[in-house]
Amino acid sequence: MYQLRKYQTKSIEDMSVNYRKGLRKLLLVAPTGSGKTVVASEVMRRVVAGGKQCLFIAHRRELIMQCSRKLYDFGVSHGILMAGKSPTKHAAVQVASIQTLTARKDKHDFDLPPADLIILDEAHRSVSTSFQELIDLYPDSYIVGLTATPCRSDGRGLGDVYQKIIECSNIKELTDNKFLVPSRIIAPTLPDLKGIKITAGDYDAKMLNKRMNVPKLVGDLVEHWNLYANDRPTVVFATSIAHSKYIANIFRQNGIPAGHIDGEMKETEREKQLEMLESGDIKVLSNCQVLTEGWDCPKVSCVILARPTKSYGLYLQMVGRSLRPYKNKKDTLIIDHSGAVYEHGFPDEPPTWSLQAKKRDNRKPNKPRNIENQPYTCVECNTVYKPTKNEPECPMCLHVPTKKEKAVLIKQGRLIEVTKKEKVEPEHKKHFYGQVLYYARQKGYNDGWASWIFKDKYKHFPANKQVSPISPSKDVLNYIKHYNIKKAKAMEANK
Predict the structure, then answer these.
(1) Bridge pairing between strands 117-120 and 79-81
(2) DSSP 3-state assignment of 107?
(3) Which of 281, 370, 393, 412 could bridge to 276 as Cys pair (CB 3.0-4.6 Å)?
(4) Please, what CATH class does the domain formed by 6-170 belong to?
């Protein structure tokens, strides 16, 4: 039997109080990693003990099986209504697929399971037609919605379904109490989203994919993973299936075991990739619209955001995949190539949730916001933080930003390079120069040769040559190879 945490017990008590007040439709907001399935299982255990019946509804197989396993842990007998499963018709608790219920509800040989209480998982989806039609068939039932993010990219509110929000803790409280690990955010590059249309409250998918699925940006993902991730088990969020496959392929080309997963793959193929990530057979798993909901792998300690989004809910879902604690896991690393932290703020900033509809944001991307309220990316180590008057220094490298750095940091909502006059060399440039320097000395070349390689890549000589040589990665070796080929061809042409 589970020992409930204090905030879990309190949320159940809050629901009971509101039901006694006459409210019948409540929305439980519980951050990823807070144990919302635990809370749901305990609620169902209590309802069944009181002689009542429950129906748990989800839209994905993974969520259904997750709930089933948790109910077994709580000692609650139940049936499963889902394609490929034999029904247990007389169980007091039924865990059901919304697709199965929708497909069978009008058939003469199928009776909808009775339910005094209905629990809807991923409840931000419950305003959809399929959920609404089903809820209408249970006019006398109590309703509990479960979600980590009670918001939709289309701005539609959940007030048509639910009467009140019950908050079950937040990310900051869970982190402070060590139920989640703290996050560290790196923003080494940001995409240019100028001109991308906003469709249904988010960036247009086709235009976004075209802008993000280019060799330079994908190369940045690999380069900065090598620089910052230190071999952490990693999940990448991509814009499309093609983008995700391309990312995985580039990682593999650079000697990093990587896989890909998407919703069109067979279930067995998806499970194999997930098992390989958990076992360590692959280090990086790229995905498109699969791992934002209903999947947990506490071992994951790095998330790469390669998919810009205007959806705050989607942002939290992506980041939340890596917040669960694990043995020897001190923190999680968010490598943000999407501009999400500048769009939505830090994940642990307590949000203000509402059931009301949100006015759709059709602003053009890159519209400047108040610089004073923006996160700041350290020019030395790319760590994202909020400098204060009393604590202006970067928490990672202790660099204190100058007024000039702050002034040029944000332009049209995105990062720009610090001016050359400041002689500030970003960390990834130092890292590259150190690798090239190592290669030069191994080959007996002078250090000036390494400087010319640096200039070929970055269009200027290194500002700081006091860098320790380090063994070069595969991608740096490939760059040197291509440079040598280019020079040889140029010399041949001049003969």
Answers:
(1) unpaired
(2) coil
(3) 281
(4) alpha beta
